[in-house]
């Protein structure tokens, strides 16, 4: 039977990881996979996680199943974190949350839900968007369309083009929006632009699907959720996929949640029943350990303070790398406009060079990034910035 299956090419991001591992050069720089690294190149276990984990292991008395919805105390804490206790939709009991295996699990369950609710709807994703959005959403059978998002030459959000295209999206279609720290461009909407998008989706009857995978990596936990909160207050219904891989450093534990805002309490409850059925049919129940850690951190005031401080350290380190890189490029005589490294937010920016340059950076200079030129700036250290700047200038000249 399996003779019908030809070998697939490697996943683009995982392929870069493999090439990096094989490179024996001590000078190699990994800007590939989207994980945070400290100045020594490690992806640390946060102190708040270590403490929470010790407590959980000491207190745990069973490994019996939890439930398809995961831990309810986790789900409630995620609603607080994403929307805030004062949010109108929360007060009206129109919000449901279901724990999922990471943000990917949330995105896929949400896509399956959309496919069941509106089989003919298209989902509009930004061009470019995170590569894995395409299989996660398309794999559920959703038709994908792209809206312009980024003006590569100016290295800026192309907001007018985005709005112009979304104005033409048919009522009932879905729009995927990155809550903050857009992957791969680092170019986010400002407060006015979020208002314009909120007006547009509510006026045109589009369903917003918000992907919030980097809450806390842009400005802080609250500020990074402002766009999501605004949209959720302006539309009758929306979906939110959230992930704690990055902001708690719980990548391999698979911690995330799918939130849905319904037009009424009864509608939200109906949506929840479908979400649970979908979860049951794919993975039955989400893994528990990471969510147990997350609840401990969200709900214990001292641990939460430690988390917020550790999150600030991660965020500020990436911002510092952005500044150092822009400075080094200017100092070494680059004639480009490098302000964008400092203006953009989160881990990623696009180099804006053709694939041949990306390949040259890898082959000659041992600098690894995805073929589209996406750079994870958290892969930089003060000791590697100058080398990267030199490599970029030489490879692009
Ligand atoms: C934009 C975006 N959404 C969602 C995710 C989901 O992450 P995970 O499934 O690891 O929680 C990621 C991870 O890289 C991401 O970049």
Molecular structure report:
Helix 5 (102-117) packs across helix 10. Helices cover 47% and strands 14% of the residues. The strands form 4 sheets. Strands 2-10-9-8-7-3-4 form a 7-stranded mixed beta sheet, with helices on both faces. The chain has a two-stranded parallel ribbon with strand order 1-12. The chain contains 15 helices and 13 strands. The mean pLDDT is 96. It has 2 domains: 11-45 and 303-396, Aspartate Aminotransferase, domain 1, CATH 3.90.1150.10; 65-299, Type I PLP-dependent aspartate aminotransferase-like (Major domain) (Aspartate Aminotransferase, domain 2), CATH 3.40.640. The longest helix has 31 residues, at 301-331. It binds pyridoxal-5'-phosphate. Pyridoxal-5'-phosphate binds next to helix 5.
In short:
The chain has 397 residues and is α/β, with parallel strands linked by helices.
Order of helices and strands: HEHHHEHEHEEEHEHEHEEHHHHEHEEH
User: How far apart are the first and last residues' alpha carbons, in Å?
Assistant: 51 Å
Structural class: alpha/beta
What's the number of structural domains? 2
Bound molecules: pyridoxal-5'-phosphate
Number of helices: 15
CATH fold-level assignment of the largest domain? Aspartate Aminotransferase, domain 2
């Amino acid at each position: 039977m399996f003779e019908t299956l030809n070998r697939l090419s490697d996943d683009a991001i995982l392929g870069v990881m493999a090439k990096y591992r094989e490179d024996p050069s001590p000078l190699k720089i990994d800007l590939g996979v989207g994980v945070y690294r400290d100045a020594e190149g490690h992806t640390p276990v946060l102190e708040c996680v270590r403490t929470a984990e010790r407590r959980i292991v000491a207190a745990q008395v069973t490994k019996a199943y939890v439930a398809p919805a995961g831990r309810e105390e986790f789900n409630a804490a995620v609603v607080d974190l994403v929307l805030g206790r004062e949010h109108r939709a929360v007060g009206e009991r129109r919000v449901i949350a279901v724990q999922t295996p990471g943000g990917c699990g949330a995105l896929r369950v949400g896509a399956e839900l959309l496919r069941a609710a509106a089989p003919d709807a298209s989902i509009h994703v930004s061009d470019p968007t995170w590569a894995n959005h395409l299989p996660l959403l398309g794999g559920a059978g959703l038709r994908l369309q792209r809206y312009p998002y980024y003006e590569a030459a100016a290295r800026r959000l192309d907001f007018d083009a985005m709005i112009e295209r979304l104005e033409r999206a048919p009522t009932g279609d879905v729009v995927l929006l990155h809550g903050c720290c857009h992957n791969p461009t680092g170019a986010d909407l400002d407060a006015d632009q979020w208002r314009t998008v909120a007006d547009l989706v509510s006026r045109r009857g589009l369903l917003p699907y918000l992907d919030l995978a980097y809450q806390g990596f842009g400005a802080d936990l609250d500020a990074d959720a402002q766009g999501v909160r605004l949209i959720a207050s302006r539309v009758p219904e929306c979906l939110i996929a959230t992930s704690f891989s990055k902001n708690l450093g719980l990548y391999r534990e698979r911690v995330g949640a799918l939130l849905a805002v319904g037009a009424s309490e009864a509608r939200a409850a109906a949506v929840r029943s479908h979400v649970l059925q979908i979860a049951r049919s794919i993975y039955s129940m989400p893994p528990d350990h990471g969510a147990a850690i997350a609840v401990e951190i969200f709900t214990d005031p001292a641990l939460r303070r430690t988390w917020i401080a550790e999150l600030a350290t991660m965020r500020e380190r990436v911002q510092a790398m952005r500044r150092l890189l822009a400075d080094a490029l200017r100092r070494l005589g680059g004639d480009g406009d490098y302000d964008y490294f400092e203006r953009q937010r989160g881990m990623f920016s696009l180099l804006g060079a053709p694939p041949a340059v990306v390949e040259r950076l890898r082959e000659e200079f041992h600098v690894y990034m995805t073929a589209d030129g996406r750079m994870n700036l958290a892969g930089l250290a003060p000791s590697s910035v100058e080398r990267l700047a030199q490599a970029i200038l030489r490879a692009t000249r």
